[in-house]
Amino acid sequence: MTPGSGGAVGPDPWVQRHWDWRAAGNFIGGGAGSGLILFAALGDTQGAPLVAALLGGLALVGAGLLCVWLEIGRPWRALNVFVNLRTSWMSREAAVAALLVPVTLAAAAGIPLARALAVVLAGAFLFAQSRILRAARGIPAWRAPLAAPLVVVTGLVEGGGLWLAIGALSGAPTPPLAWVWAALLIARFLLWPAYVRPLPERARRALEPAGRTLRWLGTALPFALIALDAMRPGPATAWLALAGVAAALAGSRVKHALVTRASFNQGFALARLPVRGARP
Amino acid sequence: MTRWTMVADLRRCVGCQTCTAACKHANATPPGVQWRRVLDMEFGEYPNVQRAFVPVGCQHCEDPPCMEVCPSTATRKRADGIVTIDYDVCIGCAYCAVACPYQARYKTDRASFAYGAATENEAKRHDDARLAVATKCTFCVDRIDAGLAQGLTPGVDPAATPACVNACIAQALAFGDADDPQSNVSQLLAQNRSFRMHEELGTGPNFHYLWDGGEP
User: Is the peptide bond before A200 cis (omega within 30 degrees of 0)?
Assistant: First the structure.
């Protein structure tokens, strides 16, 4: 790069070390958990599978938040996380989580209004999670325009996959909402290259293994298993359960890579180089 | 209004790191933490190689991403433009650190000192409140406030000026009020060509780099 060429130049960015597997755990557990609650509350599941799905979703959200709690430097001040609702998506995520817990418990207890509210709050939680990454302006792979939609779709696929698995294992027939889940699976598959393409080279390379996992474990295998399940009439089979779990595992891998591997910082760059000495 | 601003003249900086040492002495930051760093950057390929020494640190942005994301409101911005951290409120989530495009924030979980045991200066200035929370350059806000209370002018009177600026052997660093057209930094910015780092991100840094003289 020559001085005054107008292009920014500088030393290489490096992977941030502030957020590790614990932060990734929040996005994995929170995404899958809120997706699971959303699908369970939205679908026509009843009885024990519904309760298992709702409580399982809450447990995942709780596990994710526990991961964050383990990561923060001053855990006994954790309640301060609620203070900045005006601008911080982390505060908003925490506030929604605080509402999601009682509402989901009420939904599990069979209160119809709570079930509808759980759908809204689970969606809001997932949205807040996606905006947490989007607002991190120091990390190009997180502030990329399609990062937030990817986190939302991935969370829905993970949660929906687990919901299908619970339903299949309980012997329920394949629910109509399974088609929505299959559509989300395709949406995630299509969204991935569109998200990755404009990223800086380093982040793209770091995400390649996760991309392969998403392609094969997260998309091809679930569709193969769905086809196997569709060949047998009657209740959903273990094939469908496996499809759901595979899709969820692939989503977890993607989010882990996104938070801990592709999170190259901005680095330093000079728009101009200093002009010293005599002019030519 | 007042808007405290740092100006670094890239033509003058020789990379001696005296500002870094002065900052470490003034703020007793632990090993590995440099609120004022000087990057040694090389560009080009032999024989067309150029080298630049670039002082970096918190840019005290107009629109600080760290403040927007902070869930506890520990990070705030004063009316004079200085971005501060309340160590007693910060939860140490490091969200601000990943939101900062200038890699200016640090979090240290345990106390550590340059030579094992704390030196006299480190012992005097050590503060447990700074452990496990976000820390960064403060523009030596305590010196500025104390100096203003005595009627001094930051950027002109050393007692009211950030330690890094006082220490600079080449006068590459300057500090002052960018809203005062007569201030040293306003004059420097008016008489030279400058840029701000990562300006495309819309953070509005209050840290300017001079790279060339004014148009002839």
Answer: no
